[in-house]
């Protein structure tokens, strides 16, 4: 743990200097329970989100991460709400304080190995020792696997951000944790998933078009989400934001890529059809296949 050394020697020993925004050397702040120093300074450039970086990003080495609680426990990971803020700085100024979502992958024993094998076909594991350990399912292998999922999700988020697709901005990845933009309000209430949203037929049509736009952007980039469903689509202020991307598939190199794209089309269309919005999965699939540059 880092400590900021109090450089003043003239203070009586019994006082605990408090933060003075005007003079950083006066502070003697240590992260408390549920806190840590911001992990941003320790990450390498490749573990940080793509440029241009949003203005709300907090990059100060003086920032502290405070864990505010669990948003949701999923099948493979738990989602925590984190506040990253510079103590004493004006939180209303961009770059001083922000809410982030921390997705932490749990042990691979919780995740679906069969599912993961389909997605990782055609994706090389760089180190053969790691690959063997993952294949054997040793405890070291399970540890490697969850780090790989975290990096796979971070890389997918970064690539999709660069393509201009509607995904949370990926802030950074460190070990089994992906830190990303929190999609929700300023009080830490997460945006609802499409499956829970009550919308008028007009609003539904608009949301459907946004999802199709997202699928177009990915197909044109040679990709498919691979697990698209109304549970992995958030609706925030009338806008769709797509989440849960560790399994994004490369349509050209993954032999099952087009099957997964087809399944995405079926999942999306079935849900909208149940909401009485006409959607033909085969038509959508044909349209998307036509956009893939082979
Ligand atoms: N960036 C985010 N901002 C706000 N909420 C989020 C964010 N990412 C995920 N969530 C919430 O956390 C839940 C779990 O996230 P995600 O789907 O990525 O993980 P998962 O382990 O695959 O979960 P599941 O098994 O439910 O699919 C989501 O359904 C959503 O409600
Ligand atoms: Mg999910």
Describe what this molecule looks like in 3D:
The protein has 294 residues and is an alpha+beta fold. It has 2 domains: 42-181, Phosphorylase Kinase, domain 1 (2-Layer Sandwich); 194-289, Orthogonal Bundle (Transferase(Phosphotransferase), domain 1), CATH 1.10.510.10. The protein contains 6 helices and 10 strands. It has helices spanning 113-120, 128-136, 139-163, 201-220, 257-274, 281-289, and strands spanning 35-37, 64-73, 77-85, 97-105, 170-174, 177-181, 223-224, 233-236, 239-242, 249-250. The strands form 3 sheets. The chain has a 6-stranded antiparallel beta sheet. A hairpin with a 3-residue loop joins strand 2 and strand 3. The chain binds adenosine-5'-triphosphate and magnesium ion.
**Average pLDDT level:** 86
The fourth-level CATH homologous superfamily of the largest domain is Phosphorylase Kinase, domain 1
Strand order of the largest sheet: 1-2-3-4-6-5
Which structural category fits the helices and strands? alpha+beta
Query: Which residue ranges are poorly predicted, with pLDDT under 50 across at least 5 consecutive positions?
Result: 1-23, 110-115
Number of separate strands? 10
Count of alpha and pi helical runs? 6
Write a concise synopsis of the structure shown.
The protein is of the alpha+beta class and 294 residues long.
Question: How are the SSEs placed, and which strands pair?
Answer:
Blueprint (H helix, E strand, L loop, with lengths): L34 E3 L26 E10 L3 E9 L11 E9 L7 H8 L7 H9 L2 H25 L6 E5 L2 E5 L19 H20 L2 E2 L8 E4 L2 E4 L6 E2 L6 H18 L6 H9 L5
Antiparallel strand pairs: 1-2, 2-3, 3-4, 4-6, 5-6, 7-10, 8-9
Helix pairs in contact: 2-3, 5-6
The structure holds adenosine-5'-triphosphate and magnesium ion (MG).
The site of adenosine-5'-triphosphate (ATP) has 22 residues, from strand 2, strand 3, strand 4 and strand 6.
């Amino acid at each position: 743990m880092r400590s900021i050394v109090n450089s003043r020697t003239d203070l009586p020993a019994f006082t605990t200097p408090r933060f003075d925004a005007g003079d950083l050397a006066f502070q003697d702040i240590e992260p408390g329970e549920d806190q840590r120093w911001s992990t941003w300074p320790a990450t390498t450039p490749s573990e940080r989100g793509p440029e241009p970086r949003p203005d709300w990003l907090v990059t100060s080495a003086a920032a502290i991460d405070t864990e505010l609680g669990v948003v949701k426990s999923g099948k493979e990971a738990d989602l925590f709400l984190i506040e990253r803020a510079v103590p004493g700085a004006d939180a209303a100024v961009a770059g001083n304080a922000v809410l982030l979502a921390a997705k932490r992958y749990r042990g691979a024993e919780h995740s679906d190995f069969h599912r993961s094998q389909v997605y990782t076909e055609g994706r090389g594991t760089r180190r053969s020792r790691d690959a063997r350990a993952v294949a054997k399912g040793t405890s070291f292998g399970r540890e490697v696997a969850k780090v790989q999922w975290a990096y796979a999700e971070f890389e997918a988020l970064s690539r999709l951000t660069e393509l201009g697709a509607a995904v949370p901005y990926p802030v950074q990845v460190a070990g089994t944790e992906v830190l990303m933009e929190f999609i929700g309000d300023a009080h830490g209430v997460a945006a609802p998933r499409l499956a829970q949203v009550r919308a008028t037929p007009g609003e539904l049509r608009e949301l459907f078009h946004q999802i199709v736009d997202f699928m177009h952007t990915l197909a044109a980039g040679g990709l498919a989400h691979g697990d698209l469903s109304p549970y992995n689509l958030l609706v925030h202020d009338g806008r769709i934001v797509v989440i849960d991307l560790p399994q994004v598939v490369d349509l050209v190199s993954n032999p099952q890529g087009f099957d997964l794209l087809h399944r995405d089309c079926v999942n999306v269309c079935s849900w909208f059809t149940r909401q009485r919005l006409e959607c033909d999965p085969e038509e959508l699939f044909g349209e998307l296949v036509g956009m893939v540059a082979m």
